[in-house]
What we know:
Blueprint: H1 4-59, E1 89-94, H2 104-116, E2 124-129, H3 131-139, H4 157-172, E3 178-188, E4 191-200, H5 243-324
Parallel strand pairs: 1-2, 1-3
Antiparallel strand pairs: 3-4
Amino acid sequence: MPSAKEIKSSMRGIRDTMKITKAMYMISTIKxxxxxxxxxxxxxxxxxxxxxxxxxxxxxxxxxxRYFGEVVGEEEESEGKKDSxxxxxxxxxxxxxxxxxxxxxxxxxxVVENLVEHMDKDEYELMVVGELGLHTLTGRGYNVNQDFHYxxxxxxLERARIVAENLILDYYNGIYDELHVIYTRxxxxxxxxxxxxxxxxxxxxxxxxxxxxxxxRHLRSAESGKLGANEGDAQEYLxxxxxxxxxxxxxxxxxxxxxxxxxxxxxxxEENSRMTAMKSATDNAKDMLNVLTVQxxxxxxxxxxxxxxxxxxxxxxxxxxxxxx
Length: 325
């Protein structure tokens, strides 16, 4: 059994660690609230972009764009030359810059492993956001783009715009045939999930689908919710310089907003996981302190009892010697 001094030293170390975990818990709480506030503040703007895109697609159904996986202009002549089986997919993987976040990073790595398990290295490329994810996935031998280097801490719209511009340029130049985002989404304060969403090419049915009545709200009848047949319900648009140019500009902003939303969402999930981990660590530290306190009291009581026994034995021995003399 350890001595009282050793137990006391362990208790001191646990108390110091518990102070750190409590502080990290409070910091993560503040950061998570900040991330949620950032997301809520920008959502109306990007929802407006979606509505504008839906309106253009509805009113100009003949508009074609590479961002929707369609061939445009001179590309129509070379359609079919590219082997459909040689498509290269790019995956933007959102991880964290540091650990101590529970199973947050491991859940992302597990999804990545399952996704590329049966794929050749020339069929995919990982673009990892976050220092920890970059070093981990590179060390495990995956095809990671080393030129794509961005941190996950404190996401900003400026960083999302830079990332989006690089990705759109790579897609437009044919480096990637598809772009997907792997990120963690918060379901509620206790549950998160890792999702894979296709970023490019976009799908027109995601923005407008007449069969499912997924049309712009301002083009619907107020009574039935369907496209109005009365005079004035249908609207005519005059778009300069052209619907295609405006649509592509909106798509760029939409991709920027989508990446920003995933960055903020992933940050909120990371801080939520860190909060949970630090709370669990603090609770475990309290349990350890309770056990060590009981153990310390027992050792201390045993030492006091031993001292009393020794004093009593010494006094008894002195009394015997005095009686004999």
